[in-house]
Predict the structure of DNA mismatch repair proteins mutS family domain-containing protein.
Amino acid sequence: ETFYTDLNVFNDNSVFNAINKTKTIFGEIKLGILLYSPIDDIIKLQKRQNIIKQLSLVYKNINPILNNIKKRENDILWLLKEKNEEETEYINSVYCTNNWLKWVNDSSFLLNLIHYYNVIFTPFSALVSPFISIILAFIIFRFVLGIKIGIFKFYRCFKMGLNSSFSFLGPQYEMISQIIYFILYVVSGYKSIVNSQTRMDKCKLIHKKLSSVHCLLDSIVSINLILKKIGIFEYFWNSSLEKDLNIIKENFNISRNYKFFQNWGNVLITFSKLDKYRNNISNLMYFIGNIDSMLSITKIKMKKQVCFTNFLKESKPLININGMLHPILINKNHFLNDLNLQNNKNILLFGPNASGKSLLIKSLVLNVLLSQTLTISCANNMDITPFSVLNTYLNIPDIVGKESLFEAEVHRCKDYISRIKNLSNNKFALTIFDELFSSTNYYEGLSTSYAICKYLSKYSNCINIITTHFHKLCKLEKEGAFKCYKMKITQEKDGKIKFHYKLKRGISKKKLAIELLRMKGLDKEIINCALKFYDKMFKIKKKIRIEKKNILINKSNK
């Protein structure tokens, strides 16, 4: 976890965001899982790399299919997720919720009948019922009771009877009663039409969500045909997925397109049994995610500064990278670096603040991570022996009330040493250290760093890259334990610093921290004070060194 946090792999403005070219959420999840699961099996890595190369040939064929799934993805996710109370209440309104009538929900015929009763008959009856009631009353009077009366005369009598209910309103009661009855008629008709439309909208929503599964099935069939043509079908597909596909095909036999007249009972029954098929749909979506994530890698590979990594089987760890770049800086005009860690497997990296030390070591380990997950690297060329252990010693926090920053550094270092101790000789480890033991005083920090570096150099199956300001650690190069490198910088005549961000052999003793304060616009008073104090300390240090030298000369003369 600290490894991915140190390298900002999944945080905001992260490496993952820079390389994520997936279309679907499931593709994004799968790509994240790949990046979180580095492997050191060369055969598996080469096979994965070959699959990605094959997919690049059919990128233009599969990409439109993924675009179609993306359009319906939210509908599929809605089907898969647990419904909240509001959604459940909304959906249940199209089913029979009465305990005595719940059995109706298992009958496609009855659900279909109830649907059309609510959608067609109810609003229609609300509109024609006043006229039907008059006609029925006339039939009873004329043909049952035998009262001889004409239809128009009967209507006038019927209307007088209705209007008499409002006679207390005065001489205008007839007009007022007609207005009231008309308003009641309109409200009743409008309400029944709205209820019908609301129910239809709910059913349309359910159909829309379910039809997204048909889009998924059609897309899978199309993708599988493409995969079969290029011979990589078996890499993605298996008997379990075939079973899931057949189950969904058999049970989602609803029309693909919305129609007002269709078997809505079948639609509602299919939706009510969705829980049974949730896992099957999820498995098929993960298949799409797998394809999407692999296709995303082919899109990254199309970038100018991205290459396929070469995986080597050697007895000792090896990294050889040319034109290395941080993944976030792809297609940006930044300086590229070369690094060969075949003979010089341990490196001390010197350089002043902001010279690019941290950027370089992060770039290296990130490219190793990309190689052992996505099989690509942000470089012109990269050869590696896969590593079983990837460690970072960056951004170490102290824990308030528990341990100091130095204790946290010791704890992290101890964990790493424990890991490489338990590592078999044929397994390799890569670790980057940024400012080893910089949290304590100079001499103890230097001494501890020297001891740790000396100890780590014993393990021939490990590569260690350490940035430091402890220049005396260069003694380790004379002892054959480490090689010294530096980040190139130059200082102009006017004092301005130019950062080249290029890796060079050697040691950098430039002290530019105070000049950086000036560049960042800190108060002149602070800068001048710092310069005076530094000059004073430098003169004292120089004086002590001369005195010690004179003492040694005098002793030798005696």
